[in-house]
Design a protein that fits this description.
binds zinc ion, Four Helix Bundle (Hemerythrin (Met), subunit A), binds adenosine monophosphate, Rossmann fold, four-stranded parallel sheet
């Protein structure tokens, strides 16, 4: 396989990737905050991390991948003001924070699996690693990086000269004041909480004792403490959304390098861009979100969303529209249809003919995971006249180890559709009635079908049906 180049945010350029430990890559990805359902924009970081992991494995490397679960400490405002998202959701729903966390952790795991992400080797929960976080804060205190105010124990960024190295922000001239970012007594605007005290008179659902008082860990601390616990004092790759560069990842570096006295703590930082919808980031706070089940309800296969993801480079913003999704669903279905024919093909495989397309596919991925270019090679191979069907399938099966589109097992949608001429006729009759705006007739047919236990899915390619 060609030399693997990855864009390292730390260097702001593509660099040749070399694991610290020969043959073994240790990588960490910031995981979900499990206070509500993860939407399809939230899935993009994990699709990206999974593509990276599969590319590394394809290159013959062993990968240990850790993704954390944030189930405590993530505030509604990154500047350490505001409330804990878990506690807010618990209050709003009248449920226990633990119960919500368990439900949304499962939803996240299930949806990641449905879009073909391999399960990480560990998914540690912040709430189960509080002693490790306290220990790290204690070390930072011992080494003179912290100060205590009414609100909690804070990291003093002026004690860490490399603070702006990752973000490249100009901190000069940003003065501290009596009340910065809603917190009384912070010395510098970028100072952040390592430990927050539970507010006086307020009983939180999640709180612990610490050497500084009862409370809970700051959000950034969990990623430092858990990545080090699971991957070692230095490791290869840390991933996350671009929004993490100026605050969360910058603070993780300050804590980890400050506590361990290492540099660089993480060799390669990789960040993916957002999924946009209607001109802005798809986001819970903006309310413009789709969850994977919404797509499934429209008749879209979860893996068609992965196919959609592969059509853009991870460092590009990707725009989600119903049309783009429908086009991806059609593309995926066609590819699956071709794969289905090819995988039955018998015949000889001339290994020498596989080399050229194989290396073009590898080159695309090795150029900082250029998935759109790799997909172009996939289509050239799938339709190639120069290769025999058996050769085409050999390559597609190999490529799919990286793409994760399940080409070895997937069935085209047409083949999944049950066949029953009487039901087909009723469904077609309802479609025709709808097209003619004969709503009463359309409803009559829908009710008659429902009475027989037939479920209808009105999708971009017309109405499909299945039995309950
Ligand atoms: P949230 O739970 O909304 O704070 O999102 C958690 C993380 O998921 C964010 O910090 C981003 O890195 C990522 N994320 C959220 N929305 C999107 C999006 N629309 N596209 C890509 N990544 C996103
Ligand atoms: Zn993190």
């Amino acid at each position: 396989m060609s030399e693997l180049l990855v864009y390292n945010t730390r260097a702001r350029r593509k660099e040749r990737f070399e694991p610290l430990e020969p043959g073994h890559v240790r990588m960490y990805s910031c995981g979900p905050t499990v206070y509500s359902a993860q939407h399809i924009g939230n899935l993009r970081p994990y699709l990206f991390a999974d593509l990276l992991r599969r590319t590394l494995e394809h290159a013959g490397l062993r990968v240990t991948h850790v993704i954390n679960i944030t189930d405590v400490g993530h505030l509604t405002d990154d500047a350490d003001a505001g409330e804990d998202k878990m506690e807010v959701a618990a209050k709003r729903t009248g449920r226990r924070a633990e119960e919500l966390a368990a439900e949304y952790e499962q939803q996240w795991k299930r949806d990641c699996a449905r879009v073909g992400c391999l399960p990480p080797h560990a998914t540690p929960r912040a709430s189960e690693h509080v002693p490790a976080q306290i220990e790290m804060a204690r070390r930072l205190e011992e080494r003179g990086f912290t100060y205590r105010i009414e609100d909690g124990l804070y990291f003093d960024v002026s004690k860490f000269p490399r603070y702006a190295e990752l973000s490249r922000l100009d901190l000069a001239g940003q003065q501290g004041g009596a009340r910065i970012g809603g917190v009384e007594g912070k010395r510098n605007p970028q100072d952040f909480a390592l430990w927050k005290f539970a507010a006086p008179g307020v009983k939180r659902q999640q709180e612990w004792d610490s050497p500084w008082g009862r409370g809970f860990p700051g959000w950034h601390l969990e990623c430092s403490a858990m990545s080090i616990q699971y991957l070692g004092q230095t490791f290869d790759i840390h991933t996350g959304g671009v929004d993490h560069i100026p605050v969360h990842h910058t603070n993780e570096i300050a804590q980890s390098e400050g506590a361990l006295d290492v540099h660089p703590w993480v060799n390669v930082w990789m960040h993916e861009e957002f999924l946009d919808f209607r001109g802005e980031k798809m986001s819970k706070s903006k309310g413009n979100v789709y969850v994977l089940d919404d797509l499934v309800a429209q008749g879209v296969e979860p893996l068609a969303y992965r196919y959609f993801f592969l059509q853009a480079h991870y460092r590009q913003q990707q725009t989600f529209t119903d049309e783009a999704l429908a086009a991806a669903a059609t593309g995926y279905d066609r590819l699956v249809g071709l794969a289905c024919e090819l995988r039955r093909a018998q015949g000889d495989v001339d290994a020498s003919r596989l080399e050229e397309p194989r290396s073009r596919f590898a080159e695309a991925l090795c150029d900082d995971l250029n998935a759109p270019r790799a997909m172009a090679v996939v289509w050239q191979v799938a339709r190639s006249d120069a290769l025999s069907p058996a050769e085409r399938w050999t390559l597609l099966a190999e490529f799919d180890a990286v793409l994760g589109l399940d080409l070895a097992n997937a069935e085209p949608r047409a083949a999944q559709q049950e066949s029953d001429p009487r039901i087909d006729a009723m469904v077609a009759g309802r479609d025709a009635a709808r097209a003619a705006k004969e709503w009463a007739e359309a409803d009559r047919l829908r009710d008659a079908l429902a009475a027989e236990g037939i479920l209808l899915e009105d999708g971009p390619e017309g109405t499909r049906w299945r039995r309950e």
